[in-house]
Design brief:
This protein is about 55% helix and about 0% strand. The chain is built from 16 helices and two strands.
């Protein structure tokens, strides 16, 4: 058991996080949304507010909701939460604490031809920053609509849309073109995840884009000992993300590169080596 835990630490943390985010189990049975006091707090990862099991709010959804109502108040609270999570974890959230990241990791294990990273995927990795500016910030401020949640987010469709419509006949009657669009987009993304490693994280996720700005300063994450590094670049070549170097803005801080390094120059940050 001890050996199993040591070999699967990251996966266990991902599963525990997903369960903790969605531990309102009676909500799944009733098809209802938890609206208690905990719902006012944000969880670190992408996890839909409308999921029947969700006990907290998605930081991305909360940001959009705050910007929609920004005419009346500035979103100090949610910006402070994102700043705190970013400084503490950076994209460690993507590698360890995001349920949708776990889903992508599991789907990628399905035997199927895989698309390797390239210059094209590197360019596409900047798309998430465009989505952040347009759908998460621009549309909520200008059109007063939570653009990403309403038109794109597949996590919301999986956790909220499908479950709630399955349990509630009145909601099923209200589904129309928008629900069909999001359902189709979700299916397409799920299929792509089988062949393209973390395609949502790499190309689309605006929450990962936000956390990426903190990767170099976050208290948690991976760090390269420059005195030991021999510039073999194996860490970059072996990484499935579109990184140019360890811990850059595309790094999800998963630590998979630690065992790849031939000179043991990569480690997780600790108070001694920060």
């Amino acid at each position: 058991m001890k050996e199993f835990i040591n070999n699967h630490k990251r996966r266990l943390i991902q599963v525990i996080s997903a369960v903790l985010y969605n531990c309102n189990f009676t909500g799944f049975a009733k098809g209802s949304i938890y609206q208690g006091k905990l719902k006012g707090a944000c969880v670190p990862g992408l996890n839909c507010y409308s999921c029947p099991g969700a006990i907290g709010s998605c930081p991305l959804g909360s940001l959009q909701s705050a910007l929609v109502s920004s005419k009346y108040k500035f979103p100090y609270y949610i910006l402070g939460i994102l700043l705190l999570i970013g400084i503490l974890f950076g994209r460690v959230v993507c590698g360890f604490l995001c349920p949708f990241g776990l889903l992508q990791d599991l789907l990628y294990k399905i035997p199927f031809p895989k698309l390797k990273k390239s210059k094209v995927t590197r360019v596409l990795s900047y798309l998430k920053y465009v989505i952040l500016l347009v759908l998460v910030i621009g549309i909520p401020i200008v059109l007063k609509v939570p653009g990403f949640c309403k038109y794109i987010c597949p996590q919301g469709t999986i956790e909220g849309g499908i479950i709630l419509t399955a349990f509630n006949e009145p909601l099923r009657k209200l589904t129309g073109a928008l629900f069909i669009w999001k359902l189709s987009l979700m299916i397409l993304m799920l299929l792509l995840m089988i062949s393209v490693f973390r395609c949502f994280c790499r190309f689309i996720c605006p929450l990962g884009a936000i956390y990426s700005f903190f990767n170099k300063v976050s208290l948690a994450g991976v760090k390269v000992d420059e005195d030991k590094c021999v510039d073999c670049n194996i860490c970059v070549k072996e990484c499935k993300m579109d990184v140019m170097k360890v811990a850059d803005h595309e790094c999800i801080q998963c630590g998979e590169c630690i065992n790849k390094c031939p000179v043991s120059a990569i480690k997780f940050k600790t108070p001694r080596n920060m």
